[in-house]
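The pair is quoted verbatim underneath.

:::
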Amino acid sequence: MQTASMRRSIDDYPFQETDYPPNYEDDELTPISWAVGIRTITPMLNRG
């Protein structure tokens, strides 16, 4: 069984073409770091 390759850094840019969803538009994507995304989502998860 072969597993998918894993990125080793949370801030590794630029993205590869295979990282994007199918049929995306350039103006639909916002390159942010995972650290920013996790910090933004965490307060919402703790509202309970």
Summary: The chain has a mean pLDDT of 64.
